[in-house]
Amino acid sequence: MEHQTTGEDRVRMVSRQLSEPQTANWIASEAGWSHEPTKRVLERLVDDGILHRDKSGTHTTYYPDYRRQAIQEAIQLRDSGHTVEELTDRLAEMKTQIRDWEDEFDVESPNQLRGTLADESLDADESLDADEEDRRREIAREWEHLQRRIQIVGFAIREWDFLAPTTEPVKSSS
Fold first, then answer.
1. Measured distance CA(169)–CA(146) in Å, rounded
2. Which end of the chain has fewer surrounding CB within 10 Å, N or C?
3. Domains and CATH numbers, the chain
4. What pLDDT score was predicted for residue 87?
């Protein structure tokens, strides 16, 4: 990634992909760029309304406008060449996968699945091996990802006609 893009490009890419608020140091590290120029880029992105800044904690964090991200992803889905039927099938597959995990682990959420790591490690007879713990952590992360995707794909399906590309400019009513 570093050889094909500028530091600013990498900061923009990393910041757009954030799923939770992160510090400038974290973003700089992920982008492979130094702190000060990263912070300048982040501040410009805040000024442009692309990122939000939160100063309420011990460290200032930055995060994207998740609504804008979701709408952009829904538009990309609409423009991807997939049919609404294909997206509906994908939505059903994601929901089935989550139901399978609920049944397999007898839990209702990713955090309940994470909780099984603590529950079963307390009982020496039923403790999990490291591979199973890693598997459950990965499934919990994938589960959260699928929950976000279900919301976006569902929105794209519900708003299929609205999200269609238009060839006519929108006229303002003055």
1. 35
2. C
3. 7-64 (1.10.10.10), 68-158 (no CATH)
4. 96
